[in-house]
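Consider this:
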Amino acid sequence: MEHAQGAVRMARPFVLLAGVLAYLVGLAYAWFRVGSIDPIAAVYGLLVLMTATMMGHYADEYADLDTDSITRRTWFSGGSGVLPEGRIPPRFALRMALAMLVITLFLAGAGWIWGMFTLDYLALLALSLFLGWSYSMPPLRLERRGWGELDNAFLGGFSMVLAGYLPQADNLDLDSLFFCMPMFLVVLINLIPVHWSDREADRAVGKITMVVKMGERASTLYLLLIASLYVATLLLWPDIIPTEAMALMLLTFPFALWSYLRFKRRGDEWTGSLLMGSFFLATIAGLTLASL
């Protein structure tokens, strides 16, 4: 029972919700582009995304035991706290990560045989699994070399969004890639305050994240990324982002500035996460309105 409870906690159910939102962004974009949604492919694709994401979460729990043992845990950072408690051996998390990898590959293969997934989808999934594993695990361990935020932002802004889009639209095109750019930027914004709260523990164990390298300049990067987010949104309108979606996405701008001021003054780790969530919801609502 203790192992089962630990497995649930290490899966980080609250953090999985961000992946669900990103997936729904892709699904809403597919509805806008294609005009219809296959509900079976939508549900099955979400299942594949969840198992792939849990693989990454379990791998992170295993790889980050050193920093998670000395940091302050929050809803958004510091891991689940299961392994530092010492009641479950670290290798259990590694075995769970490998199990989720096998399950993901099996589900993806079955989806391809059933005609739900294309080769574009499978190629994206393979890249995403590689990057999800390499985020924290050897040999690359990107999160400890200053590349983890870009890796994570690609997974959240491109992979998860396209995981919702591709089973509906079949083929990857330039418009769908350009559409993902604001999503990539808002996920990257979210990661700055999340990793900021772990910076002392990360530095202590030699984990060089982007914010560890930048120090106090991280708040300047936060502001520059906010500016880039809304400039990118405007540049993609109206050819790629419809007017309804663009308007609702821009409505989050005052909240983005508030999140920056809150982060600069207090270093709160949840400000970026709330901005990301609100931006995703605004995008979903705007695309839905444009599709009706």
User: Anything to note?
Assistant: Residues 2-291 form one domain. DSSP finds 14 helices and no strands in the chain. The chain has one domain: 2-291. The chain has a mean pLDDT of 96.
